Amino acid sequence: MLSWQQAREAVIELVRARGRRPGREWVRLGRALGRVLAEPVSADRDLPPFPRSIRDGFALRAADTNPIPSEFQIVAEIKAGGSYDGAIGHRQAARIMTGAPVPAGADAVVMVEHTREISPSRVAVDRAARPGDHIVPQGAEARAGQKLLEPGRRIGFSELALLAQVGAERVRVFRQPRVALLTTGDEIVPAGAPVGPFQVRDTNGVSLAAQVALAGALVIALSPAADDSQALSDRIREGLQADLLVLSGGVSKGKYDLVEGALRGLGAELHFDEIAIRPGRPAVFGWCAGKPVFGLPGNPVSTMVTFELLVVPAIDLLAGAEPRSLPLIAARLDAPLEEKEGLTHFLPARVEWTPKGAAARPIPWRGSGDVAGMAQANGFLLVPADRPRWTRGEMIDVLPRRDLL
Ligand code: AMP
Ligand code: MG
Which ligand is nearest to the CA of 295? Predict the structure, then answer.
């Protein structure tokens, strides 16, 4: 049985080797958040485009501040957005604001706090300046034409700021992968529909759609399939029109767990059908009609965990990005733990960030069907397969929920 790391690596390796490269499209900057760059981004001009003062004060020649204090003639006032055509001469200064261009001749800015105005045209400087003080030279952040972002980079708020800074109005991004979702089970009814006493509302369709959207892909929700081989095959075929297919349920060893059989019947190559984790052990991954297919276990928490571990990196690759690493953090354990050896456990947990670091405590729960317990958690404690016993106060890995970070 593969460990979760081996299973994840197998997914990454196969999708990298065989997954289709995404197409490209233009989007307006305001709609580019979370998308993946399909083209490099370069500076359209020097950054900053002029030597920029980063303080309010006086621009002058540093050498003239020796001895201290010394007096300067104020020859100009330069606001952000303005400029001064002249040059600063011996014992001259320009009053300058943060973000304004430092005039020719000046090589330092003295902060206004270290000056005294003697008259509207004279200022005394109380602190010696060194050349370069409080000035960012032209082109120090980037030279015109310099490449600043590579294709494959996911666009977050700082990338958006940079795109705006280089004058991009639109940005060329990869198309988002389309992820088909297929929930299975005779007992499952769509959330919101009337539910019989022994029926179960579809929660996986809803949580998976959220996880797909968070991962940056487009959801194609198929209508749920009953536990019937023919119905399953038909719906799977439909799902294979998308770039990736995720099924939930029907992958255990029960008589009505028909997903693996249906996939095989359609010629799928299955790479694993079990991994050494709890919850989520019967997770299936394969390749069918040129597309990656996941059969995730139906218990809602199993579905959530296996999606994060296995499906997110596949989506990243199909989106034109590198797979994100799992954002594991070390947290101090607030309660002792004892789990079954041989499986890595992902226990719903509450993580709190304190001034002394992260602390985590397991949430009482009734196993992988416990959606109410899971909703109390904002992450998972990761109890490794070879280390089943933990005492309070030890540092343990935690996987925070991405939607709450
Ligand atoms: P299965 O993996 O099909 O054996 O299902 C395991 C458990 O998860 C059963 O109790 C199912 O009723 C439940 N389950 C399966 N699919 C869903 C779903 N879409 N929403 C909520 N619960 C589900
Ligand atoms: Mg089922």
Answer: 1
pLDDT tens column, 39-83:
999 999 999 999 999 999 999 999 999 999 999 999 999 999 999
Q: How far is the centre of ligand 1, averaged over its atoms, from the C-alpha of 6 (Å)?
A: 25
Mention every residue, 6+ apart, whose C-beta is less than 8 A from residue 230: none
Percent share of the chain, pLDDT over 90: 99
The structural architecture, per CATH, of the domain 52-136 is Beta Complex (2.170)
CATH of domain 329-400: 2.40.340.10
Q: Is 185 in the pocket of ligand 1 (CB under 6 A)?
A: yes
Rg (C-alpha) for the chain, rounded Å, is 30
Distances (CA, A) of 57 to 78, 97, 118, 135: 10, 6, 15, 11
pLDDT at 177: 98
pTM tops 0.70:
yes
**Is residue 205 lining ligand 1, measured as CB closer than 6 Å?**
yes
The reported pLDDT for the residue numbered 405 is 83
- Residues with Cβ within 8 Å of 3's Cβ and at least 6 positions away in sequence, in order, are 275, 276, 344, 385
Separation of CA 260 and ligand 2 centre (Å): 12
Contacts of residue 66, defined as CB under 8 A and 6 or more positions apart, other chains included, come to 128
Burial letters 337-358, b for 16+ CB under 10 A, else e: bebeeebbbbbbbbbeeeeeeb
Domain boundaries of the chain, sorted by first residue: 4-22+176-318, 26-47+141-174, 52-136, 329-400
204 lines ligand 1 (CB under 6 A): yes
Fold (topology level) of 4-22+176-318: Molybdenum Cofactor Biosythetic Enzyme; Chain A (3.40.980)
Q: Which ligand is nearest to the CA of 224?
A: 1
Is 107:42 a contact under the CB 8 Å cutoff?
no
Q: Which CATH number fits domain 26-47+141-174: 3.40.50.920, 3.10.450.50, 3.90.105.10, 3.40.50.300?
A: 3.90.105.10
Encode pLDDT of 158-202 as tens digits: 999 999 999 999 999 999 999 999 999 999 999 899 999 999 999
